[in-house]
What does this fold into?
Amino acid sequence: MDPDKAYIEHTGIRLTKKLAEGLEQGVISEDEASEIATYILDNIDKSDTSAKLLDFIEDLAQKWPIFQGVLVLEQGEVNKQNEDSALQKASELIKQNDVEGALNVAEQATNQKTGGNE
Amino acid sequence: MAEPTAAETIPKVIIREAQPATPTAGSAAELAKKVSAKVDEGSFREGLELAKKTPIAESKISQKIEQIGIERDDTTGAKARTPEEQKRYDAAKISSELTSKFIESGYDSLNDVQKGFVRNKLLTELRSRPALAAEMRGMSTAKQIALAERLLRDPSYINKSRERLEEILDNPNFDETILTNAQYAVEDAQLELDDKSAAFTDAETRLANAKTQLVQYERDATGTPATGATRATEIDTLRTTSSTSSVDIAAQNTIISTKEQDVQRLERELVQARQREGIRSTRAINTAIGAVETKRSDANTMMGDATLTPEQRTAARQDYNRLGNELTRLEEEKEQASRIPRGRDVVTIEAEIATAKTDINAARNEIQRIQADLPKLTDKEKSEKELRDEVKKLEEEKREKELAKKKAETELSRRKKTFEDARALRTSMEQDLVDNLENVFESATGEWVNDQVKAATTEMDEQLVKLKETTNDNNEKAMYDALRERWLGAQRTRRKGLIGFRSAERYRPIDRNVTNADFAVLIQSGPDQLARNILDGRTNPTTNAPYTPDEINNLIQNKEFMAKMQPEMVKQLLTRKHLTGGFTHEDIFLLEQTTWGKGMINEAIANVDKYKGVIESAFGAGALNTHGFKDKFVQIARNNPLWMLLLLGIPVAAIGALTMQATAESIQQQY
It folds into this structure.
């Protein structure tokens, strides 16, 4: 699923709130905040897929660990969305008597959730 | 207690700047609140923009401007600024506070006076740009204010201002060692001069003393001792004495010799006198003889006197004999006395001897005196010579000390000059800092406009590169190459950044002279002649030799070639013309009057839809579909050079968002 504008907005708000929280608690300095803000503004709109958005948040969390919590939340939400989407797609395929297709979709969804592609 | 040395008395006031103050506490928390507020307002991007713009560190500003001023109060260590330095400090403080407030809180946070100040700075810079000056002249004050305010609220302009201010703040602080070393060098030179001056004064004093002594030896031209020259007089006296001394000594020796002979003679005479004094005189002896003879006669008488006893007669005989002996002795004495010459008495002789000896002693003393004066002269002459030698030596020494003193004075003067230069340099650096802080808005405006021009020229060049890539015609390629290079001026170096810390950037500006000359040719002789001029001297890729006049004429007469080249050539030229000085209404009028100009404008009007984006951004969505807009737009464009340039094909980037927007505003009011 491609992230729509609302979802990017939602992620942006989470990241910015975390940034403000870090600033307020003194976990990050003003200079770091500036760097982080620049990084987010420069990259968030480049994420035209959910995977890319997650990659972006992973990069962000790797650079600045205060975003680890946001990453976990986002990963959970994306997985849930994928599962919901896969479930819906599999249901439709079953309705069309395409059991094999439904199984493939379910398998793909499971692989994505576990992070494996084998 | 010893006098303080120069080094001690010259205050060492140059000390390193104080360490920067600690950043304002709580500024991060403050920023966090602002960011959160923006998120709560529904715009995380604005929140991130806020976080992106870190506040300008007050400590950095403070550290920078606290550098202003050289001397410090010896007691408190605080800067003791001169009125000039204080003036610079105040100016820098006001400018930096204003700039950081503008950057952090925006134009709208400024008070009316501050707003007016920054607007004027910006507008002054815009007016200095030839491409904008004409347009600015045509704008009312209100429109100029609107233009300035729009730019001052533009994030890209605010970022430029931030960059300029941060560039100032990030630049290295003044190198205090230059001034300190220069001052120490002055102190050292001052000490050296003090030493040399003291040595010179000492030599001068000793010379003066020697000369004062020499006055006693001075003589006039004739050699006569000068008035008060007692030593010279003494020398003269001694010289005179010395010249007669041998005669005088001889005379004294004669006296001594004579007197000594006198003494000898007198001493002999004295012996005789003393002998004479020991022997009775002849008369006394005769008297004694007469007495003895009388007594002997009496004894003789008695010896014969019988009346006398025998004993008496014997006794008388004995007396007689004894008196006979006595008489003999007296006769002998009388004989001896008769042999001694007669002479002076002892006392007289002794007095004469004493006088002679005194004379001898006097003569000897005189000789001693004369002999004693001889070395005195030598000594005095030696003293005079030594004194004169000393004076010469001291004069030489004085000259040497004077020379050394002058050298030390020169060195001190040179070092003072160096110190003054260092102070002047410091003053200049301080002034540069103040100017830089005061000129942040001009500088940001200038760079913003430069970016526009650079973007425009780059775009124009890129267009030509693309056009060249899309054609297989060698002549067209040659024309595009010619257009790329036609208006490039000689390479120049542009100084970027702050005064004193600028970096060099090599670039080739648009050649205004060639541009104006070509524009004149375009108006007066038309595009064909301009194309002819442009191709003249260029290499024909087909022949690999310069285009011949015939080849150029053939190309100009080639309608297909010119139909394709003319609009691009005109557009490129007009763009350069716009970027280097703009167009007057007369220029536009002349353009419109030409056949080719009319053609280009008519074609543009017919295809005005392709400018839809620009026109609608200025006149609002759907403006082009408004009834009668096109006719009105043509009229507007005729009256407004910038819209006409758009119709003539000059890209929006070249015309400039700033000018176009400003024009749009003025047009909207008319519309």
